[in-house]
Specification:
It is built from 9 helices and 7 strands, in the order βαβαββαβααβαβααα. A 7-stranded parallel beta sheet has the order 3-2-4-1-5-6-7, sandwiched between helices. Helix 1 runs parallel beside helix 2. The structure holds adenosine-5'-triphosphate and magnesium ion.
């Protein structure tokens, strides 16, 4: 099983959007996929409830109170973490994961919180020893804007590079409302935005291959 933890202590940076879209990506690629929601807002659980029966199956798992067993033979697990995370919880979730996906918005407020969170992650043994790949994702980007340039500078400053940047699009909200991911669509608009996801999926594939 491959476990991807989506986390950042900054609220609203796109954790649930990325977690649900990754779940959709894996399910559409025919992996037996589970999506664990650790956030009491239950946004991922709500998404999974709205997901149409005709869409590729994603099994939702309620981890808001405690970590419960997964369906047998789960091949891909995506964990949607809450913004408010205690040190123990971070340790536990990072310990369970094969890799960490960390969304960041191009905003000075997000930068400060993200800087602190990255420092917290760096203190964890599996991350420090390079046993957990960390993929920083720039989210809600408007390309060629001052904010996009700033984000690059910020990431350079903290010794990171964005694995990919996801453009800002209403499409994400529309898909979320319907319990869908971009990967469930097969039209030109979706294909356009799906390009943003390729580097992340490649990163995940490469990290998976290294693990073997
Ligand atoms: N790339 C994007 N383009 C446009 N809107 C986006 C994008 N990513 C996220 N959003 C929107 O931003 C809002 C916050 O996103 P989301 O709920 O995924 O963040 P979160 O980190 O899970 O928040 P929380 O910390 O509350 O759990 C949502 O309305 C979502 O639809
Ligand atoms: Mg969320």
């Amino acid at each position: 099983m491959l476990t991807v933890l989506v986390t950042n202590t900054k609220g609203g940076c796109g954790k649930t959007t990325i977690a649900t879209n990754l779940a959709g990506a894996f399910a559409c690629a025919n992996f037996k996929t589970a999506l664990a929601d650790c956030d009491r807002q239950k946004s991922s659980l709500g998404w999974a409830k709205r997901r149409p029966g005709s869409a590729a199956e994603v099994t939702s798992v309620d981890w808001t109170r405690k970590i419960t067993p997964l369906p047998q033979k789960t091949q891909r697990l995506i964990i949607d973490a809450p913004a408010a995370l205690k040190r123990k919880q971070v340790e536990e979730l990072v310990g369970m994961a094969d890799m960490v996906v960390l969304p960041v918005l191009p905003s000075v407020f997000d930068e400060n919180t993200t800087r602190k969170f990255l420092a917290r992650l760096d203190k964890l043994k599996p991350v420090r020893k390079g046993k957990r790949a960390v993929a920083v994702i720039g989210n809600r980007m408007r390309l060629r804007t001052k904010a996009a340039e700033r984000l690059d500078d910020f990431l350079e400053d903290v010794g990171q590079r964005a694995v990919t940047v996801l453009r800002d699009s209403q499409f994400y909200g529309t898909a979320a409302m319907l319990g869908l991911s971009l990967f469930d669509y097969n039209d030109r608009r979706a294909l356009n935005f799906l390009q943003d996801w390729r580097p992340l999926l490649t990163f995940i594939d490469e990290a998976t291959a290294k693990r073997k």
